Design the sequence.
């Protein structure tokens, strides 16, 4: 088992919370893991990405080779497109539909959706809206993770366990909210996966 | 023992805690910051009484670490690569004084300049100082090397440089811990003049350093961090340093490279191992993250001997960090790539946060300067450097910590009046104060804006060392009290702030304006911490 994942977003959107859940689940499964992060200047509203690699064999590089990523998980739609050179021809793009517009030249959103639709295997999900409907926009990232969950090579229950271990300290409500967010993302993806 | 999932930086910190560290000294700088932060947040470190608060700058940090080593305890000092420039004086001399308690200097390089002004390679500093250098290839090695480095340092009574790069610092992986050992007891050097670098003593100590070079090389020959991995195809030999080894291995999924590989993790280079691979192989490919240090050494100036491929002959790009694809190309392997980035995707450069106080300071400054010819604002290193970009385009320089004040002074000396300096509170205490003294002594017509957001924001909000004392520092070094002006950078104060700045621009001497408003990220963090504490109390 080997999964190479690019997490993409804008500095401050919290892509590392997704990495933390996958990472905790991977450790629980006894897998090897390497995860590169972005700190420093680029965090200030710039585009950020994290390379997350899990495998049952030892992993060599901290960075994924171009064209080899099994998954690009993007918490922002244009940022998902930025990492297409990393995505393998059989890989999946899981993209949030809600744009983060902190630049004046942000492209027309429908054109972005059209480009996402061209990707062979993709799920586009309005995670922000789903999260809002559930009562907390904070869990949008977990909704996206849910939409990606069937491609991670791990059982859903392992991810649930990871959420319990990460959010357990914050109380039952927070745990349940996150697990429901994960489920909502998964259910959406089951109905709306293209390719 | 159970594996811990640690960043390279954190592995170094945990390694130091477990190897009997007594004190860590640092000024924050990407990608080195998380080493010290980890020690600061570690309960174990607290229990063991390891000191870990931030220093004013890298030079004070290096000197304090050397002092702790003098007193017989193990010390670590951490910085980003350009921080080593600031600390260069004590660093180079510490190779001559030598150490007493084990001392490790960690310098984190930033090839590709993700968060830096240059991509200088700290290994050259190690070579320059003639110090042993360690360069881990993965998080486990980073952890193990700290233990090893302290031993090496205590064996030869010399500080050891540990060089890492961004991907090593900021990538997480499993690390197995060793058993923790105790800190050293305090003990002074047996020769109480060891650290007195009077010429007569320095000459003697320097000869000792020179004669130790052979021993350092022998350590490298026998080091577990330098590995010769033989293979049958001798048409090529590959030398890797640090994490370059990983990118090589990534290109061979079965981990079997057909060519001999020499993996370097400790310097000075192990002569015999290098000689062996060069003798046995027809051609050498050098893969190193950073400058072509090993490649240049092998090639020699006239490059008349060996056939060496690397950054100098274009087999590997001359600048920037390595990755699996660059290494594939250098090996002549097919380079994989996904589909192109659609044309509509635009760049998203870093920017000041919404509601950042710096934006309001710059808007007022821009307006205050609007009747003057542009090109007179010298700035510095921090979030506010982003004021160079659209829409503010407010500054004309960013060179090194503290250079805003001194460059403004020099430009004013040349007749550019008024000249303006823009510097953050933390950068001011790092290296701005001495420059301000120069300006005061010359009564230079400069206006210095010390943007006080109460934190070292760019690196993630570390404590700023002159909190609440900026006015008194300025006053103490001779800035006239009536020309020290404090303002609150808010949109609603724009006109008043602009007026204050214009008044000081008109003054033909040193003015200091302190726009003071807390960093909004810091506020957010503070409020969250408060909420968390409240919840925990319940």
Sequence:
């Amino acid at each position: 088992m080997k999964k190479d994942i690019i997490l993409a977003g804008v500095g401050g959107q919290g892509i590392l919370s997704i990495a933390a859940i996958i990472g905790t689940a991977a450790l629980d499964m006894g897998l090897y893991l390497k995860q590169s992060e972005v700190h420093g200047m680029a965090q200030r509203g710039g585009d950020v990405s994290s390379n997350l690699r899990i495998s049952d064999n030892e992993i060599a590089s901290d960075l994924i080779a171009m064209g080899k990523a099994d998954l690009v998980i993007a918490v922002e739609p244009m940022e998902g497109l930025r990492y297409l050179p990393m995505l393998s021809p059989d890989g999946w793009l899981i993209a949030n539909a809600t744009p983060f517009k902190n630049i004046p030249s942000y492209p027309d959103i429908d054109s972005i959706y059209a480009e996402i639709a061209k990707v062979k295997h993709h799920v586009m999900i309005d995670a922000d809206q789903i999260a809002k409907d559930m009562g907390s926009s904070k869990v949008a990232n977990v909704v996206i993770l849910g939409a990606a969950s069937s491609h991670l090579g791990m059982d859903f229950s392992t991810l649930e366990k990871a959420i319990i271990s990460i959010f357990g300290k914050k109380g039952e409500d927070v745990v349940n909210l996150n697990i429901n967010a994960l489920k909502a993302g998964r259910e959406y993806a089951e109905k709306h996966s293209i390719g | 023992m159970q594996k811990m999932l640690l960043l390279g930086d954190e592995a170094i910190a945990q390694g130091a805690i477990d190897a009997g560290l007594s004190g860590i000294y640092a000024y924050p700088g990407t990608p080195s910051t998380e080493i010290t932060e980890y020690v600061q947040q570690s309960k174990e470190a607290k229990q063991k009484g390891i000191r870990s608060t931030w220093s004013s700058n890298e030079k004070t940090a290096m000197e304090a670490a050397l002092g702790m080593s003098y007193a017989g305890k193990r010390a670590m000092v951490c910085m980003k690569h350009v921080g080593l420039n600031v600390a260069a004086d004590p660093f180079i001399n510490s190779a001559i004084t030598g150490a007493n308690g084990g001392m490790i200097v960690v310098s984190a390089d930033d090839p590709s300049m993700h968060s830096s002004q240059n991509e200088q390679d700290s290994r050259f500093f190690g070579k320059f100082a003639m110090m042993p250098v360690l360069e881990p290839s993965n998080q486990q090695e980073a952890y193990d090397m700290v233990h090893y480095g302290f031993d090496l340092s205590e064996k030869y009574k010399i500080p050891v440089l540990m060089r890492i790069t961004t991907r090593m610092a900021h990538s997480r992986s499993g690390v197995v811990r060793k058993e923790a050992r105790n800190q050293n007891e305090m003990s002074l050097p047996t020769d109480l003049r060891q650290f007195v670098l009077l010429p007569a003593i320095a000459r003697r100590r320097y000869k000792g350093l020179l004669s130790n070079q052979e021993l350092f090389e022998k350590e490298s020959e026998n080091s577990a961090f330098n590995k010769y991995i033989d293979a049958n195809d001798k048409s090529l030999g590959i030398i890797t340093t640090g994490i370059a080894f990983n990118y090589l291995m990534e290109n061979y999924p079965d981990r079997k490279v057909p060519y001999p590989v020499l993996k370097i993790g400790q310097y000075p280079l192990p002569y015999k191992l290098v000689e062996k691979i060069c003798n046995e192989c027809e051609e050498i490919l050098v893969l190193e993250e950073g400058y072509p240090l090993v490649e240049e050494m092998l090639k020699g100036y006239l490059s008349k001997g060996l056939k060496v491929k690397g950054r100098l002959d274009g087999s590997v790009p001359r600048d920037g960090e390595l990755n699996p694809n660059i290494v594939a190309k250098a090996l002549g392997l097919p380079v994989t790539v996904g589909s192109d980035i659609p044309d509509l995707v635009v760049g998203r450069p870093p920017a000041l946060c919404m509601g950042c106080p710096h934006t309001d300071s710059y808007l007022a400054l821009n307006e205050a300067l609007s009747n003057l010819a542009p090109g007179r604002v010298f700035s510095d290193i921090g979030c506010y450097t982003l004021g160079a970009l659209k829409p503010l385009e407010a500054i004309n320089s960013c060179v090194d910590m503290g250079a805003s004040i001194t460059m403004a002074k020099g430009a004013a000396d040349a007749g550019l009046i008024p000249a303006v300096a823009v510097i953050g509170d933390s950068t001011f205490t790092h290296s701005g104060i001495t420059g301000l003294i120069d300006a005061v002594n010359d009564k230079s017509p400069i206006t210095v804006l010390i943007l006080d957001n109460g934190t070292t924001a760019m690196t993630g909000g570390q404590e700023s060392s002159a909190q609440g004392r900026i006015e008194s520092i300025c006053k103490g070094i001779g800035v006239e009290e009536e020309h020290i002006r404090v303002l609150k950078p808010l949109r609603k104060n724009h006109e008043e702030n602009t007026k204050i700045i214009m008044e000081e621009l008109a003054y033909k001497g040193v003015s200091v304006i302190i726009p003071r408003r807390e960093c909004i990220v810091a506020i957010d963090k503070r409020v969250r911490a408060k909420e968390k504490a409240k919840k925990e109390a319940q």
Remarks:
- Chain B touches chain A through 53 residues (CB under 8 Å).
- Chain B has three domains: 3-222, 227-330, 357-522.
- The mean pLDDT of chain B is 96.
- The domain at 227-330 of chain B is CATH 3.40.50.920 (Rossmann fold).
